[in-house]
């Protein structure tokens, strides 16, 4: 059941970034940085960089992490007890937090890529470990 904690932290991060997407869009309209019609179909106008960063980061949190969510669900349903998997889950979540912080602040693509690649590697190791445990 320890797996629920890193899962919950990643869910909180996803909601925080999701709410920030909405706030950045409202701010962009309020400041006159984008025509409100842009948000109808997300085309025809250019959104400011800060809006695009929040939107892209939110998308990132709904892509690879789906494999994490599914893996954690399997671990819970199969009642797998593994300290290693819990540690790897926390490592994955911390790396995703680092990725988001880099993306939403100074946005160095090389640093972002390293955190993304490391988190993906950790997730792959988690899947291999689960396979080894259940097989």
Task: Provide a descriptive summary of the structure in words.
With 135 residues, the chain is mainly α. The protein has a single domain, classed as Membrane associated eicosanoid/glutathione metabolism-like domain (Four Helix Bundle (Hemerythrin (Met), subunit A)). 77% of the residues lie in helices and 0% in strands. It has six helices and no strands. Helix 1 packs antiparallel against helix 3, helix 1 packs parallel to helix 5 and helix 4 runs parallel beside helix 6. The chain starts with a helix and ends with a helix. The mean pLDDT is 94.
Give me the secondary-structure category. mainly alpha
- Global shape: elongated
Helix content: over 70%
Order of helices and strands: HHHHHH
Measured between the Cα atoms of the first and last residue, the distance is 21 Å
CATH superfamily: Membrane associated eicosanoid/glutathione metabolism-like domain
Mean pLDDT: 94
* CATH fold topology: Four Helix Bundle (Hemerythrin (Met), subunit A)
Keywords:
Four Helix Bundle (Hemerythrin (Met), subunit A); elongated
